[in-house]
Specification:
Strand content of chain A: under 5%
Largest interface: A-B, 22 and 30 residues
Number of domains of chain A: 2
CATH class of the largest domain in chain B: Alpha Beta
Largest sheet of chain A: none
CATH topology of the largest domain in chain A: MetI-like fold
Shape of chain A: globular
Distance between the termini of chain B: 44 Å
Number of helices of chain A: 14
Radius of gyration of chain A: 24 Å
Oligomer: heterodimer
Shape of chain B: elongated
CATH topology of the largest domain in chain B: Rossmann fold
Number of helices of chain B: 11
């Protein structure tokens, strides 16, 4: 691109960039404040002035306290197992279901899809009690199964994938049939690889929701070694930290860091996925 | 006479009959075009042969094998789609390998990394690569093997789609308007290439198009389809010179065949506007007289009309004339005649009688022959045609 052109467009974009930057700063301010507090000594946290840059670093003190007193690694590992387990099963079940609803003709398809839509309207808290009783009677409380199983079938995922698959050309599927693929091969070899944008978007929704979920783990988990990240912070606040906000923020930062990093990576793929979807000839 | 045989196939979507008892047989190695206007059922017929559509009744067999109830995957056909339908996430090499991978490898051998564990998977994959490379060389796309479809031009995608179809040597080859997304110049060169490719590969081919010039130039035989029925299946020459149905005559040829309403008198003389034209017919009553533009010549006698429009095409001139009965006819005349063709000028157009045809108003072909009493014979035909 020619240099003058680039400069001119940058000048023209400046007001827009400034406005977006300001909005982003407002949105990120609490998180930045959290990072800042996690590095401040106790005395400075309660100082009257608002300084984003700590005058004295208390990194070792705050983070050391967290790492020493609570098993952050275990929480994060639990979070990964639960979120990954949920996501894998959700995709495993939702993608074939969505394919059938989007591209196959069978009697009753619209009624089945109606039920899926109906399922979207039911908040999962309403099913918590019967599920709890079910897990309690089968002795599955305090297991990974209890944390994962209720979420493996996501109606939202079915809905999202179904809408996306409908836009894929029918002839792509016909070509696959002529090339010798069965319906399952079509789903995993043709449909899913071409649905990366939808899959990434859904993965972000799913992982964020379950990483931060506090409600369900609180219902089914008592044992400390099954604590998910959100529960870990809760436990740390009540038991260990008390008024020690520096250490609490350090714990929060450690627990949210994997999510932030994962999101930054996924976002890249997400944009790539959208631009690469050159399906039409 | 193996090839593709379609017997009395019907297909209905609800109450709509799309195919009304179609029978067609394509000989081994023959190239047959299915032509017809949009919505005539030609694509449905092709999809029924491919197995993408289940027929309501009738039978389909390919290479003497009954396939009516088989899935598309088991019919051993290859198909080229209008929008190519390449797998967007795979490279050209991978796209072309898919049909071979799906047919030659077992489910276990297809798993990722199976090549490291199963020696059979490794050797089969190597064979597949050899075949893919050979097909790619045939189509001159071996330089594009590592690109994805989005990085290819329309013509290149079309070649890859052809490559994916020929790579596994299918017993039948189906093409659904493969040229319609290409620009005009590319379309003409590609159709020559497809014919050459067909001669080399030698598989029975059904080619669907709505473009009669594609059908005329490429096919061994043309099947003209309208409203779910095959009207005529014959060689391009036969379809052009000797259509059995008025709708076939109208569909084939550019500019379209001239249609002039006529009457056959009680004595069997064909008259236009009460004037005998030099034809006799065993039929009686109102009929449609047709004549191709190149079989009308300017002369001293013949049908009277006035010049309404003149189109210069280079090698010939299209003369649009309004006849006394109000019909517009087109005559292809020599460029040298153009000078004396002013708008509104009266002209006489003589019919080449051995080429004139009669159709009933219900579209069937009627017999007719030049009469002996010479009332309106072409005058100086040879001179005008050069």
């Amino acid at each position: 691109m020619a240099e003058p052109n680039a400069t001119r467009s940058l000048t023209a974009d400046l007001p827009r960039l400034a406005l977006l930057g300001l909005a982003a700063f407002i949105a990120l301010a609490p998180y930045l404040w959290m990072i800042s507090v996690s590095m401040k000594p106790q005395s400075e946290v309660f100082a009257a002035s608002l300084d984003l840059i700590p005058s004295e670093l208390a990194l070792i003190e705050n983070y050391g306290k967290v790492l020493e007193r609570v098993p952050v690694g275990t929480y994060i590992l639990n979070g990964l197992i639960v979120c990954f387990g949920i996501l894998v099963f959700q995709i495993l079940f939702a993608v074939p279901a969505a394919y059938a609803l989007a591209k196959l003709n069978f009697p009753g398809r619209d009624i089945v899809f109606g039920f899926v839509m109906l399922g979207l309207l039911v908040p999962y808290q309403t099913t918590a009690l019967p599920l709890y009783i079910g897990f309690a009677t089968t002795g599955l409380l305090d297991t990974y199964t209890a944390l994962i199983a209720p979420f493996v079938c996501s109606v939202f995922a079915i809905f999202l994938f179904r809408q996306f698959f409908r836009a894929l050309p029918d002839d792509l599927i016909n070509a696959a049939r002529i090339d010798g693929m069965g319906e399952f091969s079509i789903v995993w070899r043709v449909i899913l690889p071409n649905a990366w944008p939808a899959a990434t978007a859904f993965a972000i929704f799913s992982v964020v929701a379950h990483w931060n979920d506090l409600f369900w783990p609180l219902v089914v988990v008592q044992k400390g070694d099954l604590y998910t990240p959100a529960m870990g912070i809760l436990a740390f606040r009540s038991v260990e930290a008390g008024e020690d906000y520096g250490a609490l923020m350090a714990a929060a930062l450690l627990v949210t860091a994997p999510l932030v990093i994962a999101f930054l990576f996924a976002q890249r793929r997400f944009i790539e996925g959208i631009t690469m979807t050159g399906l039409k000839g | 006479m193996a090839g593709i045989v379609v017997e009395n196939v019907t297909k209905s979507f609800g109450d709509t009959k799309v195919l009304r008892g179609v029978s067609l047989s394509v000989a081994e190695g023959e190239f047959v075009s299915l032509v017809g206007p949009s919505g005539c059922g030609k694509t449905t017929l092709m999809r029924s042969i491919a197995g993408l559509e289940t027929v309501t009744s009738g039978e389909v067999s390919i290479s003497a094998r009954q396939v009516t109830r088989l899935r598309a995957a088991d019919r051993d056909v290859a198909m080229v789609f209008q929008n190519y339908a390449l797998y967007p996430h795979l490279t050209v090499r991978q796209n072309m390998a898919v049909p071979l991978v799906m047919r030659r490898l077992t489910t276990a051998e297809r798993l990722p990394f199976a090549g490291y564990i199963l020696p059979s998977a490794k050797t089969k994959r190597a064979d597949i690569q050899t075949d893919v490379t050979r097909a790619a060389e045939l189509l001159a796309i071996d330089g594009l093997m590592d690109r994805k479809p989005a990085q290819l031009s329309g013509g290149q995608r079309q070649r890859v789609a052809l490559g994916r179809a020929i790579v596994r040597k299918p017993s039948a080859f189906l093409m659904d308007e493969p040229l319609s997304n290409l620009d005009a110049a590319l379309r003409v060169t590609t159709r020559t290439e497809i014919v050459a490719l067909h001669r080399r590969v030698g598989a029975s081919t059904v080619y669907v198009t709505h473009d009669q010039s594609e059908a005329m130039t490429m096919s061994d035989r043309i099947a003209v389809m309208m409203q779910g029925e095959l009207l005529q299946v014959a060689t391009p020459e036969e379809i052009y010179a000797n259509p059995v149905d008025l709708r076939v005559a109208r569909f084939i040829g550019s500019p379209a065949i001239n249609q002039i309403s006529a009457d056959v008198t009680a004595s069997g003389v064909v008259e236009v506007q009460g004037q005998p034209v030099g034809l006799v017919s065993p039929a009686r009553g109102p009929v449609v007289l047709t004549i191709r533009p190149e079989d009308l010549t300017l002369g001293a006698q013949g049908l009277a009309g006035t010049v309404e429009h003149v189109e210069f095409l280079g090698e010939s001139v299209l003369l649009h004339a309004r006849l006394g009965g109000g019909e517009l006819v087109v005559a292809r005349v020599a460029p040298s005649d153009r000078a004396h063709l002013g708008l509104g000028q009266p002209v006489r157009l003589a019919l080449r009688l051995d080429r004139a045809m009669l159709f009933a108003t219900t579209n069937e072909r009627l017999a007719c022959a030049p009469s002996d009493d010479v009332d309106t014979t072409p005058v100086n035909r040879e001179a005008v045609n050069g």
